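pls ignore typos typing on phone
flavin-adenine dinucleotide + seq
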Amino acid sequence: TLTDWPTITDELAHLDLITDPTGVAKLSLDYYHFSPILEKKLQDKRGNLVIRPVNESEVLQIAKTCVKHKVPLTVRGAGTGNYGQCIPLEGGIILDTTKMNQIRWIKPGLACVEPGVKMAAFDKKAREIGWELRMAPSTYRTATIGGFIGGGSVGMGSITYGQLRDRGSLRAVRVVTLEDEPRILELRGDEVQKVNHAYGTNGIITELEIPLAPAHPWVELIVVFDEFMTAARFGQALGDSDGIVKKLVSIHAWPIPSYFTALESYLPKGKHCAFVMIADYDLEPFQDLVKEYNGQVTYQKTPQEASKGTSLLEFTWNHTTLLARSIDPNLTYLQTFYFTLERVEQMYHHFGDEAMIHLEFLRFHGKAIPAGLQLIRFTTEERLNEIIRYHEEQGAGIANPHTYILEDGGRKVIDLDQVCFKEKVDPYGLMNPGKMRGWLEREKA
Ligand code: FAD
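k done
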């Protein structure tokens, strides 16, 4: 049956709607184009209508209309995801959360926000009482907190606080369901994992409680090294240095630094570099660590200076890929858990220039480990898959950024709790259809 868009638009006419095709097209896409594979598959996908609710009661009205007319619904935060998470595969309504941007409360260690709150804007407020987000992606300035929970995983802060999926990284959520009579449910404790990183396939998050970290004054530094593996070992040593409070440990093999044109004068040709954020009262032990690894500090910004200009954060995590691709669009990337430096070294020698190594250190089950967002010189899909396979055969874990399927991009296993929760809250399978393998297989069976 054909969808009755005029009636749907009428029913929701009192809300903030975007119907013009250019506006809808813009809010249908994200940063999927980092992947040449996703680019081909997703570039033509569009929603039919964008709605920007301002509160939960408007979200409930949208949910009701979607269920009544059986139209797909895709939730969108800032649309900075890299795997087409918020690209509607089957058209329908795009629910843009950016106007739901109220901070409910902030107290020491914990805050409650609406999903459309931008992370940097939140931190500005939280720092007034000496706290900040425990972790945030390099899209921190634009990304929403709801979008980070729905589609993100790690970022600055992860060297100390681990990943979003770790117990404790998300405390509570309110979700609106797409049942015949949409409801508001509150999940707390381990229950939150049902919707954590579920790509908005099983409930519209309308409020979240998130833990905070003490806001230290962060100094930003660049350290350069003659040898790549010395830079990598320095990164591991800093990650393991429990006496040095830190927020970012990002290592780049040459020629990656050559893509950072704005920092050219701090990045000598042919040298490998570390971008770090260190609590300013820990600079002395940090400098001793630099000396031990024969590094050279070429850039140092005080917390005040760093808060004014572009943060080094915006050269790290997936901003590295963004900057490199702006110079060489044939580059793409992989997301890798190397787990050990031995594996990093092996891959460094095995792939050479085809997979330029970019490491981000993060805490994984209590240990600092090297993860990679290596830059790949793309040739064919077959070769890309071969590179992935080789990494996996050698014991590395790949979170494949070249698929829009939730499970295939992450741990490769179907999360039954998430699928069962979807059965309950989205019985018609209207939420972000086509993204959850567990649901697709259930439909086939
Ligand atoms: P969106 O892209 O809008 O949404 C992400 C997913 O969450 C979608 O599936 C959407 O449907 C769902 N969603 C959004 N809001 C809700 C809601 N209220 N209820 C239910 N589901 C919802 N990611 C990292 O983890 N770490 C990084 O360091 C990082 N660096 C990046 C660098 C660049 C240059 C780019 C382009 C991306 C990067 N990303 C990174 C990916 C992305 O920017 C982050 O994950 C970001 O937090 C997503 O937020 P968003 O508001 O843009 O979400």
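The mean pLDDT is 97. The CA atoms of residues 68 and 271 lie 60 Å apart. more later
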